[in-house]
Amino acid sequence: MATTPSSYARFIGRVGALAVALGLGAAIASSPGLAFAQDDDSPGTSADGGASDSGTDAGTEKPDPQTAQNDDTADDATNAATNDAEGAGPDDEPGGSSDTGRSPTRLRTKASQVTISAQTNISRKDRSADKAATSDTDTAPDTVTDTDTEAGTDPAPSAAEPAVERRAAPPVAAAVATGVRTVVTTTLSALGVNVGGITNTAPIAPPQEPPTAWAALGFVRREIGVQAQTSPLATPEQLAAEKTATRTVQTLPVLLMKMVLRHQFLTEAKRLYPDGIDAENRAALNRAVDEYAMAAAFQQQLLDSMNPKVVTQVAPPHLWFGQAVGGSRILYDNPDTVYRFMGVNGASEYVITGRFHNLDENGRPADVTFSVLEGLSGKTSSILTADDIDVDENGYFTITVSREPANGRRNHLQLTAGSTIIAARDTLGDWNSEVPMSLSIERVGGPPNSLFAQIGGFAFLGQFVSDNPLLTTLVSLVPPLPHMPPLLRGVFTAVILVVRGASEQAKYMALATHDPDTGSRRPVNEIGQPSSNAEFLANQLQSNGHFQLADDEVLVLTIDPGDAGYFVVPIYNIWTITGDYVSEPASLNIEQAKRNADGTYTLVISPTDPGAANWVATGGLNQGAVAIRFQKLDPEGVRPRIVEQQVMTHDQLRDYLPADDFVTPEQRAAQLEARREGFDSRWT
Question: Where are the domains positioned within the chain?
């Protein structure tokens, strides 16, 4: 019987071959004669080639996640709902809820009559037909597996010039949804009700002791009373990426690195908060480290820029389509923003295709940006806003991405030799009416796929390789692995945590306690005036600070947004991540807050509800951080500012604010219900 060599043996051989290629490349690059002969103006993607490397050619359907097989492990289907245990960890917020098995934000799965489908082509020929075919299914998509791209055997490129691939424009990834039966089954299972017979089509007699079951069924009926449209975030590649990240954080290298990070985070916090760290924030440390590791597990998947994908991350824990996904919030995440990332490199060319689903003024996101990020630091080199994008009458748009300058062209992003990531941000002001855009990306030109690219070579060394066609050719000689073993993913995730973890976290934590320009310590309960910070979105202003409040105290901020079209006031623990901003108003933006007659906004930050309409909850934290964002700025307009800020008690607040700035318990309940419904629409 024929046998197949182990994938690890093949990997060792390919690593050796890659090392030889890199050694030859270094020797050639350092040769004076060859360096003199090299044409500095020769681009890295100068010739067309017929080799295919992305794994899925344009127009070729991707496997349906319901039937796709997992390349990494054989038992992922049974572990999908439980693999999140270490990735999310026990919820260390006061209250002790767990990230595993349910979301602390109490997300609710809504029904939709759409099946998981292959990507739908939205070329100009097809855009006239604005409806995708859908069909009902009785099978929940909780068997989605991470199907790593099968690597073809690319012909070896010429040593004089790297092969270049050209592909058709990409499709937009089809949304994933689930049927009513799936919602009933998932919900009842989560409630502990035996649902083994719920799929039986034969008549079933009522249970003998039905109170719990009928109460649960009543809950489900309320949940599915209104059909919800499937979120544009629910794509097969997103579900696969979440499963891969969940497995990755369980590997030994990541578990070991989390122990190191926990010590480093705590050491830095003690330095920044010399007066001490309270018990609630100490209890939140483990969860913060878990979310940082989950974010790194997503980032590891972006290292392979030859097979780009759109990955949503920097998100809270959520439960959808049978998958319990740990949180990946880091570095002052914005509750209003949907963060999506795409891995790129300066030797390749790409096409991003997307669609705005609601072109009404109240339906498009409040702010949309595409940013090109450089190296591992994530500094922004170029940015494209919604105003720079031409959109057709059906909401579709295409963005070209390459080393070429725009030269007046719209819908174009320019890469550099060190470009690694494109970050797309949908910022939603009205959670209940604004809809995130659909996005997909395809590589349409560049060298063939390789082991060097697969393990992140362009992300770590792209600035040295992308500008040299000969080096690009040499590192592309060794083909990629057919799939990436989980342990190897864990190794590179741990490397990301080593390179970025402690130093990056320390830099962001310090923004709350120290002025980045002067280095001086910020007084407690005093938020800085809006300023530009390179660590955040390049075209926004931020106000940072930290608070220390008793349960019956409030920090009152009066904000003049000036000509800013958007601002948000979110609350963070000292580890720079948000808490449960769905069950409580732990953030308020310009659309959600009540406006004063003079155009200002008075926000009231407090650990407990003072009854104010503009209450910003701290999630019970007495100690924490604030990072206010101002976006959609007019460079020639009025600059935003914090007009007034002061600490007072709840009783004093009643005398300070007019009576109509307070709400009744019924109004507060309606506000929170609207938040839940708006947020749940992102994860259905």
Answer: 541-683
